[in-house]
Design a protein that fits this description.
single chain; about 250 residues; three-stranded antiparallel sheet; flat; disordered C terminus; five-stranded antiparallel sheet; alpha+beta
Length: about 250
């Protein structure tokens, strides 16, 4: 193939491979002439010719890549679902869904044209169950509850009301234990003492001044004593108790 039949970009790429000087400032014709001269001066013309052939072949084989299929996460899966997740001791997150099949069967069975969905949260054991919250919701969605229930077992239900206002459970979540609001009774004394014994060395390596070190050490000792006092208190303290004591 003649160099004159190639475009400037193709000529420039070949010129770059053979280190043609001043190639960036050349026009298409100048690039073609420079490559022709180079081809005539080299001992083996096959080198340039093979480069041109491989370049053209690679260009010919380059085809537009098909677009990758995207699989967006659907809003619903059309499956009866309700899940309760603890956020902290006083907040819970619930998401749910009622399938079309279940909703249609319910409407036919109870002669209801406009179904009402109710989301509920419960706590307790089999012989002592208490309803903590109840809210009217849609067919699917998510909700945050502000229920202060440290160390308690909670679960959620999604249900529907029939034409008489009677509640019917559709799906129930697993029972979960809410996180505690107290400082843990378990202390990693080995790690705590390791840090405590080397605290001055840590401050020295961090590059703080002697004055800053004294201030930091004083603060560290204070927190260390407070930490020990809290764990020496029989039964521990709840966050609510600490708040009350701090405000007195």
């Amino acid at each position: 193939m003649k160099f004159e039949d190639m475009n400037k970009a193709e000529l420039y790429e070949i010129a770059k491979k053979f280190n043609i000087k001043n190639r960036s400032a050349m026009t298409k014709e100048e690039l073609a002439n420079a490559l022709s001269k180079y081809e005539n001066t080299v001992s083996s013309k096959t080198t340039v010719q093979e480069t041109v052939s491989s370049h053209v072949t690679a260009e010919a084989k380059t085809e537009p890549q098909p677009l990758k299929k995207e699989y967006p996460i659907p809003d619903i899966y059309n499956i009866n679902t309700v899940v309760l997740l603890p956020v902290n001791p006083k907040k819970e997150y619930v998401y749910w869904e009622v399938s079309d099949k279940t909703m249609n069967e319910f409407c036919r069975s109870y002669n209801t044209a406009d179904p009402i969905f109710i989301l509920k949260v419960f706590t307790g054991e089999e012989d002592n169950i208490a309803e903590l919250a109840s809210v009217r919701v849609g067919k699917y969605g998510n909700w945050y509850f502000d229920l202060y229930c440290p160390d308690q077992r909670l679960w959620a239900e999604i249900g529907m009301l029939d034409s008489m206002g009677n509640y019917h459970t559709i799906s129930t979540s697993k029972r979960i234990k809410m996180p505690t609001d107290r400082i843990s009774d378990l202390i990693d004394e080995e790690t705590w003492m390791t840090v405590g014994e080397n605290i001055e060395k840590i401050y020295h390596l961090s590059g703080v001044t002697d004055l800053q070190k004294e201030e930091l050490l004083s603060s560290a000792r204070m927190h260390s004593e407070l930490f020990k006092k809290l764990h020496q208190t029989e039964g521990g303290m709840s966050s609510s108790s600490l708040t009350r004591k701090g405000g007195e």
